[in-house]
Amino acid sequence: QLVESGGGLVQAGGSLTLSCAASGFAFGDYGMGWFRQAPGEEREFVATVTWSGSSKYYADSVNGRFTISRDNAKNTLYLQMNSLKPEDTALYYCASLSGSWGQGTLVTVSS
Fold first, then answer.
1. Which of 7, 9, 64, 92 is the most exposed place for a label (fewest CB within 10 A)?
2. Beta-sheet pairing, 105-110 with 8-11
3. CB of 107 within 8 A of CB of 8?
4. Which residues contact 104 (CB under 8 A, 6 or more apart)?
5. In this structure, what are the phi and psi dihedrals at residue 71, rounded to the nearest 5 degrees?
6. Any residues with CB less than 8 A from the CB of 40 and at least 6 apart, and which?
7. 20: nearest Cα among 103, 98, 86, 109
8. What is the distance between the alpha carbons of residues 83 and 96, in angstroms, rounded to a whole number?
9. CA dist 94 → 11, 12, 13, 48, 87 (Å)
């Protein structure tokens, strides 16, 4: 099970940190990722991190502004989002390479 939290309303230029608490599987064995889906749009990749946290990959649209990280001791995935833009408004999901998806947390960025 994956449960996201930390979404909310923020002004453009602001920051938010999303969390994803994992349970029921060996979190530390799997790569993890963040995805997002804006209203009327398809779900898109945001960032991913390997099981160890040593390698991270980002969509071009968020590279340099977002940082993905994980704490395997706490079974938790994070997404630090800085310099937020209105186009970052979306439902943010975490996912495991084991095939699990969370329910999403809504991020709204006002201009």
1. 64
2. parallel
3. yes
4. 4, 37, 91, 92, 93
5. -125, 100
6. none
7. 103
8. 26
9. 23, 23, 23, 9, 19
E-assigned strand segments in 1-111: 2-5, 8-11, 16-22, 32-37, 44-49, 56-58, 66-71, 76-81, 90-96, 105-110
Q: And the tokens for 110?
A: 């006002």
Q: How far apart are CA 39 and CA 82, in angstroms?
A: 21
- The pLDDT tens digits of the residues spanning 45-69 come to 999 999 999 999 999 999 999 999 9
pLDDT tens, position by position, 9-29:
999 999 999 999 999 999 999
Residue whose entry in the numeric block shows the structure tokens 């079974």: 75
Look up residue 40 and give its amino acid.
G
Count of positions (residues) in the chain: 111
Specify the 3-state DSSP secondary structure of 29. Answer: helix
